[in-house]
Write a structure and sequence with these properties.
185 residues; two-stranded antiparallel ribbon; alpha+beta; single chain; six-stranded mixed β-sheet
Length: 185
């Protein structure tokens, strides 16, 4: 059994505290014991074709988003399940409606002519839940500002099936800060 927190964490919702106090075992197929700093793989996480296809769609959705159009993201965002967004500027948003509202608000700050690419380092899905982790590289045009702004974010997104469709339930994105010396994390 893995214990993530020894005491309740006040800023986490009840559902996240329940997850934090339990074990990670089941649909992803491994148990993590943080005290031993090991991961025991019980079964291999397979990559299913519909998730691979969905991730290609996700890349198109990201491109629309950085061009100020949150509509495609709204179509893949979860509607009937808990959602979270840990934004690049430090925001923490909980609740499907609240997260979607934040996505829409932030999309309106981008202008057309922006570019985005998702650089996937790792992804996996088992038919019920899937994720990808990597980088989002972009050249952004902001409304009311001249020129483009380069952006490189570290991103983890988690999806689950809702009514037979993959839906975004969690996004964590933060700026990648390059270190000056090699081997520094």
């Amino acid at each position: 059994m893995a214990t993530f927190f020894r005491q309740p964490v006040p800023h986490l919702s009840n559902s996240w505290q329940a997850i934090a106090a339990g074990t990670i075992e089941g649909s992803w197929g491994f148990i993590i014991d943080l005290r031993a700093k090991t991961t025991v793989h019980k079964k291999r996480c397979s990559m299913i074709d519909d998730f691979k296809t969905f991730i290609e769609k996700r890349k198109v959705v990201a491109q629309a988003y950085v061009n100020g159009d949150a509509g495609p993201l709204a179509k893949i965002a979860v509607k009937n399940f808990a959602a979270t967004f840990f934004g690049p500027m430090g925001a923490v948003v909980e609740g499907a409606r609240e997260v979607l509202g934040r996505y829409e608000l932030e999309a309106h700050s981008f202008d057309t002519g922006s570019e985005s690419d998702l650089e996937i380092v790792h992804m996996c899905a088992n038919g019920e839940i899937g994720y990808w982790a990597g980088f989002q590289n972009a050249r952004l045009r902001m409304k009311g500002r001249a020129g483009t702004i380069p952006m490189r974010l570290r991103v983890t997104e988690i999806f689950r099936k809702e009514e037979g469709e993959w839906r975004l339930i969690h996004r964590h994105a933060d700026p990648l800060f390059e270190t000056k010396s090699h081997g520094t994390s």
